[in-house]
Amino acid sequence: MADEPSLTRWSFLDFKLFYDAKFGRKRLPEPQNGQTADELDSNGTNSNVTSKENHPVRNTSDMAIYEQYRNQGTHSVHSNGVVSNGFDSRPQRSLLPAFESAEMRALGESLSRDIVRGNPDVKWESIKGLEDAKRLLKEAVVMPIKYPKYFTGLLSPWKGILLFGPPGTGKTMLAKAVATECKTTFFNISASSVVSKWRGDSEKLIKVLFDLARHHAPSTIFLDEIDAIISQRGGEGRSEHEASRRLKTELLIQMDGLTRSDELVFVLAATNLPWELDAAMLRRLEKRILVPLPEPEARKAMFEELLPQQHGEEALPYDILVERSEGYSGSDIRLLCKEAAMQPLRRLMAVLEDNQEVVPEDELPNVGPVTSDDIETALRNTRPSAHLHAHRYEKFNADYGSQILR
After folding, report:
1. Engineered SS bond to 288: which of 162, 174, 200, 365, CB 3.0-4.6 Å?
2. Which residues form the AAA+ ATPase domain (predicted)?
3. Phi, psi (degrees; rounded to nearest 5) at 403
4. 3-state secondary structure of 268
5. What is the CA radius of gyration of the chain?
6. 17: closest CA among 47, 46, 37?
7. Which one-letter DSSP state was computed for residue 142?
8. Cα 159 from Cα 214, distance rounded (Å)
């Protein structure tokens, strides 16, 4: 039991080395004049205290990192931030930039959770149609990284693109394709990420977000449903809350102000209500792309992928589906195909429910194929949901949209 305080101090010292290496803080100095590592405290000063009190972990974020460190094993010996087993725990780039205060650093740690580290696994080819939107996204995000020589001066890459259109037409799918295909740090930001109940924290979160994006450049900031963040300032009757005005002003300044840098930070925004956006934000979103309802060719490709033709089965009436699905969005088409696929399953479930005997799972029969009658039933039971404001999107596209001339 006499060795317990020494072991505790060793564990905490190892954790401090792990923490400093992971987050880019300064490492412990080398021992001098015969000092051993356990004679140096976390500030690099001589420490001969052998009390039984453990060094406290200051806050919840430290606790999370401490738990992560303990899960990796506390018996590894560190030297200059390198684990004895040869694994270097230091990242190629520190997780956070050098913030001016601990408060800003805490906000940065909370926003770093919105960095998409997983692969959404959405390829450009998996999005049917929308060739204009895909081409512009490639020009704005992929090409400047692949050919930086050409994107200088007047041809500097666009810093903002707005995807607008009816709901369910593939705006978020395009953002997932950007996160999958483009070699950038992807920030998936919603209103809950940058809105705080504490006074002054919302605009600080916006500033920290762009500081993080510049630190991890090239990076992409995806603002889904941006109309919830920066609608027209003032609102009806000029009754907008002061905190909302400050947040919008900070976002406008960060996107295009004296703080704008040469780092490649690309803002991708999506909305179903583009006419509610502030005019200053529309100016900063340099390309405004209409994501329309799918064309007949795109609808046919969707039907063929979702309801593939089974070998030896009845041919499905894809032409009828395309003709009668005018005004359907991509999401509506998926629901239509799901309803058609449910029809043979419902017939099978009715048979199984009538049978009082319990059938083992491995002996359950297969679901039958989808027939033309099933598709007819699905068409009667499914209605489009995205065609209500089609004329407003067309008018907004005529007034503010970016067209591609071939």
Report:
1. 162
2. 157-295
3. -105, 155
4. strand
5. 28
6. 37
7. I
8. 12
d(CA 380, CA 374) in angstroms, rounded, equals: 10
| Residue 255 contacts residue 234 (beta carbons within 8 Å) | no
- Edge to edge, the sheet with strand 185-189 lists 185-189, 219-224, 265-271, 160-164, 287-290
| Integer CA distances (angstroms), 91 to 22, 146, 216, 389, in order | 6, 24, 12, 48
pLDDT digit string, tens, across residues 220-239: 899 988 988 887 776 554 56
| Selection from 343, 325, 346, 323 nearest residue 334 by Cα | 325
Number of H helices and E strands in the chain, helices first, is: 15, 7
d(CA 228, CA 193): 12
| Residue 360: cis peptide before it, omega within 30 degrees of 0 | no
Closest to 28 in 3D by CA, of 39, 40, 36: 40
Enter the CATH code of domain 102-293: 3.40.50.300
Partnered with residue 83 across adjacent β-strands are: 78
- 235, two tokens: 């609102």
The structure tokens listed for 386 are 């995205």
Does domain 296-385 correspond to CATH entry 1.10.8.60?
yes
The answer to whether the CB of 175 falls within 8 A of the CB of 222 is yes
Domain boundaries, the chain: 4-83, 102-293, 296-385
